[in-house]
Amino acid sequence: QRIRAACEHAGRSPDSVTLLAVSKTHPPETIREAADSGQLHFGENKIQEAKAKIPLCPGKCRWHFIGHLQSNKVRDAVELFEMIQSVDSLSLAQEINKRCDQAAKKMPVLLEVNIAGEASKSGYRPEKMLAELKELNHLPRIEIHGLMTVPPWAPEMEKARPYFRELRRLKERAEAVLGAPLPHLSMGMSGDFEVAIEEGATLVRIGT
Ligand SMILES: *Cc1c(COP(=O)(O)O)cnc(C)c1O
Predict the structure, then answer these.
(1) Number of the ligand 1 atom closest to the C-alpha atom of 189
(2) pLDDT at 179
(3) Contacts of 89 (CB under 8 A, 6+ apart)
(4) For a substitution probing ligand 1, which of 3, 22, 193 has the most ligand atoms within 8 Å of its CB?
(5) Best of 25, 45, 63, 147 to mutate for ligand 1, by most ligand atoms within 8 A of CB?
(6) Quick one: pLDDT at residue 66?
(7) In which residue ranges of the chain is pLDDT below 50?
(8) Going by CA atoms, what residue is nearest to atom 13 of ligand 1?
């Protein structure tokens, strides 16, 4: 209801925003309950937890990886997830490409951007992402669908707005480099998703 209200407020169609239920730390029973209520997309941030849990969840659940991905976990990630939202280096993308090739599949990905340049966070620096974009796009098993970010934590949601706006502008620059549209902006969490929707989010990641 809040997503719908935020879309109406922003003059957007409610269908243009997908709710990603961040299910990390939640047991399969809770996920099943959500799935039975019509929730389809779920997000996990640890491969080990996902590997144990996903087989116990309903088959209709669709899984997104949203955590920091180490190269030695890529093979599992490629098997478990239908989208990897946290690609933050060329070497990681190359490893995903290699494992997808072996598994004969393609992987939709988002490029994670460290939009505020926080030392404590993973994610591409914006200029680095733009510089590597063409090479990333040439990896045959990878489909770049857009950008993802986690802005600096703040108690009020308005504080996040400039970062969301920045990510939207960065997506426009990336589209210019690629000469093609990127459909997704994954931004907005429990504390700030309404503002993210006003700034163009298409995927909101809600945990708490
Ligand atoms: C945990 C997590 C979320 C959900 O955050 P909430 O504030 O609990 O909604 C969203 N995105 C990422 C990358 C996360 O790790």
Answers:
(1) 9
(2) 98
(3) 124
(4) 22
(5) 45
(6) 98
(7) none
(8) 66
Tell which one of 66, 113, 115, 186 to mutate to probe ligand 1, the residue whose CB is within 8 A of the most ligand atoms.
66
pLDDT at 89: 98
Pocket of ligand 1 (CB under 6 A): 22, 24, 45, 66, 150, 189-191, 205-208
Statement: the pTM of the whole predicted model exceeds 0.90: yes
Cα–Cα nearest to 189, from 61, 6, 19: 19
pLDDT (0 to 100) of residue 206: 98
Residue type, 18: T
Q: What's at 2, amino acid-wise?
A: R
Cα(72) to centroid of ligand 1, in Å? 23
Tokens 């669908």 — which residue?
Answer: 145
Q: Which residues pair with 146 in a beta bridge?
A: 110, 184
Specify the residue with its C-alpha closest to ligand 1, atom 1. Answer: 207
* Measured distance CA(107)–CA(142) in Å, rounded: 5
**In this structure, what token pair is assigned to residue 132?**
């590597």
